Each structure stands twice: as structure tokens, then as C-alpha cells.
Amino acid sequence: MRAALFLSVFLLIAAKPGFACTVALLLMIDVSQSVDSGEYQLQTEGIARALEDGEIRDTMQRGQIALAVMQWSGLGAQDFSIPWRQMRSAGDLDALATEVRAMPRSFLMSNTAVGDAIFEGLRRIEAAPNCARKVIDISGDGPDNAGSDPLTARHRAERSGVTINGLAVESLGLSITNYYRSSVITRGGFVETARGYRDYARAIRTKIARETAQIMF
Q1: pLDDT tens, the chain, 217 aa long
Q2: Into how many domains does the chain fold?
Q3: What is the span of the domain harbouring residue 135?
Q4: Less CB within 10 Å around the terminal CB: N or C of the chain?
Q5: Which residues pair with 67 in a beta bridge?
Q6: Is 217 a member of any domain?
Q7: Which CATH number fits the domain that encloses residue 115?
Q8: What is the rounded CA–CA span in Å between residue 51 and residue 38?
Q9: Global pTM value
Q10: Is residue 204 included in any domain, yes or no?
């Protein structure tokens, strides 16, 4: 009897009525002045290749994952480059990968406003489809040097029930991974480290696979 009751409760919780989408994932890529044109292309190509990965494609279609892409840099320099769309088919993923590869860079020679980027990401994720989880995935190769305090933005995310994960690109001799852990990601979030931009494709693939998994992390 107790086992049957436990199973009934588990199935009721697992069903989560009202959520056709498991995750709304906002991919935020760094286009500040420390990122050259080749490094920008390594980021967009890395995201496109992740969308073409067989395991990720299966997970995204099963979960009807919602995706959007934002470029971020300094004060007032945030561009919502690819608006929200759900991945319901292979065609959806192919179209998004093509669009990411062709996405023009929005900003040049601007500083690094991590806090402002997160605040804008929170504003954009409010308009995401109705998903069980909301996740901001922010990539970057340096600490903030302008704008709002990232800690304040992180606290806003936590109060809003939004997870922030970081992809730290270690290419400037700084400990960006530690910075993201201490100042950017939320409780329950994680940091994936790329050893330079040439490692970005591997890192973003690993990160997206974890973020879109059916289990909570």
C-alpha cells in the first residue's frame, strides 16, 4: 500500500502539468573588445555544432527546448539577436544552426558589463515560452569592468527562480572560472571551462548537454 501511494505521488510530481517545454535556455555570448573576429566565429560555430550533435538534438526535441541567443558587451550593449523558438523537430534545429552561423556581430570595441548583461537576460527570459526551468547560459573571457554589480544581478535571478550557468574562457591569464563561480552563477548553477576559444566548441556542447538534460542538476 505504501509503495503504491509513493508511486502515485511520484507520477503526479513528475507529470508537471502545464509544461510542454522542459527548459528555456538563453545563450549569451561575449562580444566585448577582448574578443576578436576569429574568436567570435569560434563561438557561433561552436553553438551551431552543438545544435547538430545527435544527443543534444534528441534531448531538445523530446523536451521541446526553447532557445534564444543574445550578444552582450558593455553599457547599453546587449542585442537579442535570435528570439525565442522551440525545438520541436530536426528542421527547427537545422534552421537555428544555420541562423547562428550567419549571425552578424553586434558590437565592437566595447567594455565588459556582466551585471548589465544578466539584467537584460532576465528581462528577455521573462518572455520565454512556458517551461519547467529557465536557464541563462553566459559565456565570457573576462571580469566585469563597467555597469551594474553582477552580484546584484545574480541575486535578482535567484529570487526570480532563474538559473545562471557560466562558460569561462581562460585565455587572458586570469582565473575567469573562479570569477564566474564567485560572482556570476546562481546556487545550483555550474561553470564549464574552455581552455581558450579553440576549446569553446567542446565546452559549449558539454554545457548545453547538461543544461538540457531531463534530470535536475
Answers
A1: 454 444 333 333 343 445 689 999 999 999 999 999 999 999 999 999 999 999 999 999 999 999 999 999 999 999 999 999 999 999 999 999 999 999 999 998 889 999 999 999 999 999 999 999 999 999 999 898 988 999 999 999 999 999 999 999 997 667 999 999 999 999 999 999 999 999 999 999 999 999 998 554 4
A2: 1
A3: 20-211
A4: N
A5: 25, 85
A6: no
A7: 3.40.50.410
A8: 20
A9: 0.88
A10: yes
